[in-house]
Every structure is written in C-alpha cells, then in structure tokens.
Amino acid sequence: MLTNKRILIGITGGIAAYKSAEIVRSLRHEGAEVRVIMTKAAKEFIPPLTLQALSGNRVYSELIDIDAEAGMGHIELAKWADLLLIAPATANFISDMTYGKADSLLGSVHLATTADILIAPAMNQAMWKSDANQTNIGLLERRGVKLIGPEEGPQACGDFGVGRMAPNTEIVKSVIEQFTVQSLCSKKVVITAGPTREAIDPVRYITNRSSGKMGYAMAEAAIEAGAHVTLISGPVSISPPERCSVVNVETASEMYEASLTACDGADIFIATAAVADYRCETISSKKIKRTADTITLKFKKNIDILAEIRRANRDLYMVGFAAETENTEINGYQKLRSKNLNAIVANDVSRADVGFDSDENEVHWMTRKSVTHINKKLKEQLARNLIAKIANEINTISLCERHF
Ligand code: PMT
After folding, report:
1. End-to-end alpha carbon distance in the chain
2. What dihedral do alpha carbons 398, 187, 239, 158 form, nearest 10°?
3. How close is the Cα of 234 to the center of ligand 1, in Å?
4. Whose CA is nearest to atom 34 of ligand 1?
5. Residues 225-274 pLDDT 10s
6. pLDDT tens digits for 40-73?
7. DSSP 248-305
8. 354 lines ligand 1 (CB under 6 A)
C-alpha cells in the first residue's frame, strides 16, 4: 500500500516512543521508505540504533548537520518527505508546533515541509484536556495538521483517561489513508457478508463455512475509498470495520429484507455473503427428539436476493460473488448473466488455501466484456484491488452518461 512512499517519522520524548519502533517496521512492511528524526528527549526513551536498524537509514537528530549537502539537513529532509508523521507527539512538541519553534531539527522540518502532517498525540490525560493544549490542537487542525488519537485507557503514570497514543495498527492505517485515492468518494455502498443460518428446530440450524472475512475486507476497502458503507452481516465471529453501518441478520429472508431497505438510493450492491439456497419447509417448534432411526427434512428454495434486488433497482451497480467447485469461470459467467449483474467475482471454494474461511483468496473478476485473473493474496489486498476495479467501472459509466 505504501510502495515508493517516503515517510518521515518524528519521534518526541514520551513513554509511547518505544511503540514507534513497531510503526517503523510496519510502514516498511507496507513498502514505504522511512527516515526517522528523534528529539533529544526521545533518545532517552528508545535508542536511535533500534530505529536505525528498523528503518534501514541513519537516524537524524541534529539541526546543524555537517554531513548534509550545504549543511542544511532540515531542508533536505523537509523536501524528501511525502508525509511527516509525528508519533508520539508530546504536549511540549505540539506547543512548539503551534508557535513555529525552529530550535530543533524536527521543529525546523515541520516548518519547512510542504508534505502533509499527521500527528499521534500521547500525554497524560489532564495535560491533554488542558485549555492550553486544546487551544494548540484546535489551531494545528485549522492549519491542516491531521490527528490520529489519542485514545482513552490506563496510562503509564497510573491515571485513566484520554491521552494514550492511538494503536500502531490505527496509525499505520491512517498513514495509508493519506495516500488512498478516494475513488468511491461519497458513494453509497451496500455489502452482504458471512453465512446465513436457517433453523431446523429451536436448537439446530443449517449454515455454511463462510467466515465473513472476504465481505468485511470489501467493506473496509470501500470505506478507505471514501464510500458510505452499509454492511449486512450473517453471524460471524470477527469485528466489523469502524465507520460503517452494520445490520446483523440470521436468515436469507432477513438478509433480503435488510438489503432491499439499504439498497434504496444506493449506488453499489456487493453480495459477498454465502446465502443458504434452501431453508426447512417447516421449522419444528420443539427440539426434534432422537427417537427415529432416520428423519427426513424437506427444504424449500430461498429467495434469490441478487435477482430480487435487481428487479427493484434497475440502475444499481451490482457485483455478485460466485462460489464454485468446478468450471469456475464458466459457472461464474452464467451467474453474472442469469442474475443480471454488472460484474461477478468467481472463486474456487474447493481449495483449502483460498475461499471459505482462509485469509487469502484468488479470483476471476468478470464483467460482460472481460475476465481478469487476480492472483492469490490476502483478502484485504484483494478487496482493495476489487474496489479499485468497481470504482473504475462506475466512474467510466458516469463519464459515458455525461458525454452521451
Ligand atoms: O466469508 P469467507 O470465509 O471469507 O469466504 C468468502 C466466500 C467464499 C463466501 C466468498 O468469496 C464467496 O464466494 N461468496 C459467495 C458465496 C455464494 O453464496 O455463492 P453462490 O455462487 O452460491 O451465489 C452467487 C451469488 O448469489 C452470491 O453473490 C450470493 O451472495 C448470491 N445469492 C445466493 C443465494 C441466494 N439465495 N441469494 C443470493 O443473492
């Protein structure tokens, strides 16, 4: 996600400084080139050598740098960065930023850079709440500095409150978001995910192996792309992404009702859910006793959610997923046509390494005009690829509508 991006990390002197080492590692893992500036106080909390080893670059801390070209390291670093991330940002450094103090390398770089600036404040809860700090934060935000955190929780000093540095994963996600093109900006996207559950009696049901990972990854990627997402989820044990509306359902029929409501006024419907094709014709109101040697259950066909949603919404851009165990492409294409979809993502669910419940997937992205094979990758990465493809299709359609 961050290939070729240049991230300059400023570390200031707070206890959360030790967490910055992990941030450096994660950013490099995402492909970024990372350089680190430490304030004098930061070096008291974490040795520069750790950051040097993890970033693969020397650590900068002196304002006057005789090794730098023309002795102006701060200007070179300021120009080099695509993004300046200050994590942790102490109350003291935030105050320096507000007043434009340039008596440290990081202070000077902050003044000299034209790159976006993201800060992850970390301090005692009372300091965070203080009038002076809140005024400084407000001023920085008005200048366009972006904030991640702080969070509420127990603090190193024994206090409890808002002031903990945001978790590293959130900080890295926020860095990625700074570079993400908002390709679905303000689009209304409805996504179904997970399995459905069809009752047999009060204690038993039939379901399938869907974990919800693929659908939740699609929701996350659509949010990253700027969409307003409604996630309609069958029963799963993973947490939904933040910043989306979640509707929890159990049965296919509930999923249909929720989809119909959510698709009213929506731009895109993505059906990742593994919907039960059949339900019991009658659900026993009492637990079925273990008396007979064999029992017979009679099943009735469930509603085809995609087909019904299409009937009600002619202009909706609709993407299905096809779970196949043979002839993936051919069967996928048939579903694309029979359900009158704009695109379908066909995957082979007979494999153990992809499809149901695995962290990775490998698919064919199929429209009426073309098929693209997308190699095996993490569902999160795949979802970003698929959202980019959907955005590309949607934006092409609206371009055509504007011109003809
Ligand atoms: O959740 P994971 O563990 O991450 O697994 C991901 C996945 C394998 C579930 C996902 O990649 C996938 O393939 N989802 C589609 C599962 C499915 O039900 O496929 P299908 O070929 O039976 O149905 C085709 C399409 O019709 C799907 O978009 C489905 O949501 C939809 N459908 C199916 C039945 C029905 N009654 N109504 C529907 O709308």
Report:
1. 36
2. 130
3. 12
4. 275
5. 889 999 999 999 999 998 899 999 999 999 999 999 999 999 999 999 99
6. 999 999 999 999 999 999 999 888 766 665 555 7
7. E--SHHHHHHHHHHHHTT-SEEEE--B--SEEESS--SSPPPS-SS-----EEEPP-H
8. no
339 CA closest ligand 1 atom index: 26
Tens of pLDDT along 103-139?
999 999 999 998 899 999 999 999 999 999 999 999 9
For the CA of 213, the nearest atom of ligand 1:
4
Residues 6+ positions from 236 with CB-CB distance below 8 Å? 193, 194, 195, 210, 211, 212, 216
Between CA 233 and CA 191 the distance in angstroms is: 8
Spacing, Cα 240 to ligand 1 middle (Å): 18
- The answer to whether the CB of 349 is under 6 A from ligand 1 is yes
Residue closest to 268 by CA, chosen among 309, 325, 210, 326: 309
pTM: 0.71
pLDDT confidence band for 178 (50 / 70 / 90): confident
Q: Is 165 in the pocket of ligand 1 (CB under 6 A)?
A: no
Using an 8 Å Cβ cutoff, are 16 and 168 in contact? Answer: no
Q: Tokens 């002196």 belong to which residue?
A: 62
Cα separation, 43 vs 320, whole angstroms: 53
Q: Tell me the domains of the chain and their CATH numbers.
A: 6-178 (3.40.50.1950), 188-403 (3.40.50.10300)
Q: Distance (Å, rounded) from C-alpha 52 to C-alpha 34? A: 10
What CA–CA distance (Å, rounded) separates 148 from 165?
A: 8
Place of tokens 């994963």: 169
Tell me, letter by letter, the H, E, C secondary structure of 98-167.
HHCCCCCHHHHHHHHCCCEEEEEECCCHHHHHCHHHHHHHHHHHHCCCEECCCEEEECCCCCEEEEECCC
Q: How far is CA 52 from the centre of its chain?
A: 29
Residue pair 130/87 in contact (Cβ under 8 Å)? The answer is no
Beta carbon of 208 within 6 Å of any ligand 1 atom: no
| 88, 151 Cβ separation under 8 angstroms | no
Residue positions annotated with a catalytic role: 157
Helix (H, G, I), strand (E, B) or coil at 185: coil
